[in-house]
Design brief:
Helix content: 25-40%
Shape: globular
Number of domains: 1
Radius of gyration: 21 Å
Distance between the termini: 25 Å
Structural class: alpha/beta
Order of helices and strands: EHEEHEEEHEHEEEEEHEEEEHHEEHHHH
CATH superfamily: FAD/NAD(P)-binding domain
Strand content: 25-35%
CATH class: Alpha Beta
Number of strands: 18
Number of helices: 11
CATH architecture: 3-Layer(bba) Sandwich
Strand order of the largest sheet: 6-5-14-15-16-13-17
Oligomer: single chain
Largest sheet: 7 strands, mixed
């Protein structure tokens, strides 16, 4: 059977690998002319590492030994029990540049069946099969379609018809600092929480530090007169070291800014000969660090379901039983975490920070069980 995958990002390539391993012929259609991801880092929690292992993909990640959450003055609120997390779930916690993960997936998938510069406008099907429709109205025929085309998925728009994603009221700047003089402990990462804002920094391989700043802002707001760097200094210039140093050490032209969107959890992801994975199925905010990990779990679960089932409808049902409730829970948790960051009332911020400081580590681990515990989807 032939699978047609709309989208050649992390979800699409991982799904392509899983379906080939399940015995399918696979074609992946990516709208960009080249595979490239810039300016962003990704947390690979144990569930993501477990899925990568199942896919046979090795990545150049930096193992994290320490993660702290602090307030915007630098006072520690939570110290994540990284050693206990690794021991509990059987895999290390790592941080990787998005481009490195995408490259590793592309190498594992290979050039055959990967079509760049191929945008998808939708699909059509009948008794003979299903076809992806390109913008020029030419079609590509196959036996099933997987929408892996992101938060504004054309496949989802046709399948579910739930409109545009929802703007959540915050914007995020992302960048990479390459200086060796930043005071951030090797193998460590920090999240600072402020009033309606957040800043985070994590080491990447090859002596780089990924950082991101989040604050409440109107949708589609333009950069100020001095550009993104000046805007960041305005919002975060008075925060503790190394925040101002990270902004100063980053190339202004390489700083990215994107508004934050997600969707309300869907009740189903599948139809006749078509299903969804990754952000097309369950777009979520980055606050739980689970977007890539959940997409990787989708890929493995869908591949395993197609191996086990005797029909597409049976396979899609099995896939959704394994993944839909679990992924939707993470969507809700991520949105809740975003709302917590968006608190800007000083008294409520004090209450939030006091609550976080009082959290016992066992409760932190119990909360993580919802996303990190092993499931039948990935063994």
């Amino acid at each position: 059977m032939k699978a047609l995958i709309a989208g050649g990002g992390i979800a699409g390539l991982a799904t392509g690998i899983a379906l080939r391993d399940a015995g399918f012929e696979v074609d992946v259609f990516e709208r960009s002319d080249e595979l490239r991801e810039i300016g962003a880092g990704l947390m690979i929690w144990p569930n993501g590492a477990r899925a990568l292992h199942a896919l046979g993909v090795t990545i150049n990640s930096l193992t994290l030994r320490h993660i702290s959450i602090c307030d915007w003055r630098g006072r520690q609120l939570v110290d994540y029990p990284i050693k206990a997390i690794s021991e509990r779930y059987g895999y290390e916690v790592g941080f990787v540049h998005r481009a490195d993960l995408l490259t590793a997936l592309a190498v594992r998938f290979g050039a055959e069946g990967l079509h760049l510069g191929a945008d998808i406008s939708g699909y059509e099907y009948d008794e003979a099969g299903i076809r992806l429709v390109l913008p020029d109205q030419t079609t590509v025929a196959g036996d099933l379609v997987i929408g892996a085309d992101g938060v504004r998925s054309a496949v989802r728009r046709q399948l579910i018809g739930d409109g545009d994603p929802e703007y959540l009221g915050s914007t995020i700047w992302r960048g990479i600092a390459t200086t060796d003089s930043i005071p951030l402990a090797a193998g460590g990462g920090v999240n600072w929480f402020g009033r309606g804002s957040e800043f985070l920094a994590f080491h990447l391989p090859n002596h780089r530090i990924y950082w991101a700043g989040v604050t409440k802002a109107p949708r589609d707001e333009e950069a100020g007169v001095g550009g993104h760097k000046a805007d960041l200094v305005k919002h975060f210039g008075q925060w503790p070291d190394p925040v101002p140093g990270l902004i100063a050490a980053s190339e202004a032209g390489a700083i990215l800014r994107n508004d934050m969107y997600d969707r309300a959890p869907a009740r189903c992801w599948s139809g006749d000969r078509v299903t969804l994975v990754g952000d097309a199925a369950h777009p979520m905010t980055p606050n739980m660090g689970q977007g890539a990990c959940q997409a990787l779990e989708d890929a493995v679960a869908l591949g395993n379901s197609l191996k086990r089932a005797t029909s597409l409808s049976m396979a899609f049902g099995l896939y959704e039983r394994q993944r839909l409730r679990r992924a939707n829970r993470v969507v809700a948790m991520s949105r809740q975490a975003t709302r917590g960051i968006q608190i800007d009332n000083p008294i409520l911020c004090v209450l939030r920070d006091t609550f976080m400081r009082a959290l016992p580590q066992r409760l932190v681990l119990r909360t993580l069980d919802a996303t990190l515990a092993a499931s039948s989807a990935v063994g």
